Amino acid sequence: MSAARLDAGRGVPPVVRRAAAALTLVIVATLTACSSGDVPEDGPDVLRVLAGSEVKDLEPLLRKSGVKVRISYTGTLDGAEQVASGGADGSYDATWFSSNRYLSLIDGAPARLSTETKIMVSPVVLGLRTAKARELGWEGRPVTWEQIATAAREQRFTFGMTNPASSNSGFSALVGVAAALSDAGEALSGEQVSAVTPRLKEFFAAQRLTSGSSGWLADAYTREGGVDGIVNYESVLLGMGGLSLVRPSDGVVTADYPLTLLASAPQEKKELYGRLTAWLRTPDVQREIMTGTHRRPIVPGVRPGPEFGTASLLELPFPNRRAAADGLITAYLDEVRVPARTLFVLDTSGSMEGERIEALRQALVTLTGADTSASGTFSRFRSRENVIMIPFSGSAGQPQPFTLPEHDPRPVLAQIRTYAERLQAAGGTAIYDGLRAAYGQAADTGQGHYTSIVLMTDGENTDGSSYEDFDAYYRALPEARRQVRTFVVLFGESDADEMKRIATLTRGAVFDARTGSLTSAFKEIRGYQ
Q: DSSP secondary structure string, 256-317?
């Protein structure tokens, strides 16, 4: 299971806060036809669903269904691999991801699936500040991905988008742009991915904000701005308000949210599945989904509202082989996107001795490529990335930089692995001295990198400067350095309240690994870097 991300934002509009809440992946959400406080036990009358966090906003609606539903949330890639390997058999009866497209490409996965029922639709589109859309001449007019790419290449607008390796909205956007710019009439091939990569690099040069989830992206944009718009689900953009939506006339990739029965589900669960899907597709429920979540109805008899416009959606071709899909994500991470600059502030105090320092070593080794799963492969340190390790105990240690070359990063990955395996625990805990050292190293931050800080600690601050000292230090930093976010990992006996204050101050987020895996927390954070 992955670590839970705790919302550090405040003062966010309710619809955005609901979207941001969908980021917590470790929680097992319980839904019943009874009161929301009841917890259904596993049994023949409970439908167990493995789902993507995108459907979390439907929890209140499902309580009205008359079917007891128990949902466990996971990342899209992790969930797809769990299903394909048979790991979901016996533990779950159905899946509910925003799309089954990637899952269907994995060898053996289709045989694990049974009935698929599409529940709603939301295309991935571009939302721009109305003034910027008007400046570009796009307000109320048909616009193609070619025109959007040209404006991006000319730096006429900037945007944010989720990481395609972590979020379906980012993956869908990447597929859509690649298919449109390569003029692919059929499924994207590996050759087409290679050919279109230079154009993708031009397009994504205008990206200034990245994220591991759609909700956090919307949250960050609403709180801070900083970019002209974001690429996201139409439903998220409509829920935010204040944006002009650009639905490319040459096609989009849509999420159709298929609630899918697993082939291993017993007969009594098949009956529950049938009741639930039939209820979700009734006209009244489809209208409630549309008005409550801004997703388009899937049932032909339910008329979409005026907010969706009148133009028909043209679906762009999707890769029909996993190698092409994985190749597209790899090209994005290694060649296309702005590279990351990541500073790890790592607690090596005496309280970390034993299993905890070993867990830290293992988490870092995982990011060097030791995890060969799809999610592990995509979360490793990437080509062109700059990684800086800053250990701290009673004081901040010596920063150790590593720069991964564009080609063949394996020697540098091996160096990081050796460094991680040699970490030792001793001394006190000077959290804020470590953080100050990291922000000092971020002095040369520019648009050439996405720079972020990961702070991991297992205890409270005992040495060096205090939170108040750090607060004053941070607020006095130049604006460019204050743009660097800190993602905090709770571990052991971390002071949760104080760590949340750090994340709020620096506009980052908190990931809770106290009851889960430190490795999972580090992998999850990679989607935000």
A: --EEEEETT--HHHHHHHHHHHHHHTSHHHHHHHHHHH-PEE-STTSPPPGGG-SSPPPBPP
Residue 16, pLDDT > 50, answer: no
- Residue ranges of alpha helices (H) inside 229-266 are 234-240
- Is 0.90 surpassed by the pTM of this model? no
Whose tokens are 């405040």? That residue is: 10
Q: What is the DSSP code string of 328-368?
A: HHHHIIIIISPPEEEEEEEE-SGGGTTHHHHHHHHHHHIII
d(CA 457, CA 461): 9
What pLDDT, in 10s, does the model give residues 513-522?
Answer: 998 899 999 9
Strands 46-52 and 68-74: parallel
On the question of pLDDT at 37 being above 80, the answer is no
Averaged pLDDT, 312-338: 94
The Cα 528–Cα 86 span in angstroms is 29
Maximal CA-CA distance, the chain: 68
CA 64/CA 496 separation, integer angstroms: 35
**Number of C-beta neighbours around residue 40 at 10 A:** 18
Over residues 252-263, the mean pLDDT reads 97
Q: Which of 5-9, 453-457, 519-523 has the lowest mean pLDDT?
A: 5-9
Q: How far apart are CA 113 and CA 46, in angstroms?
A: 19
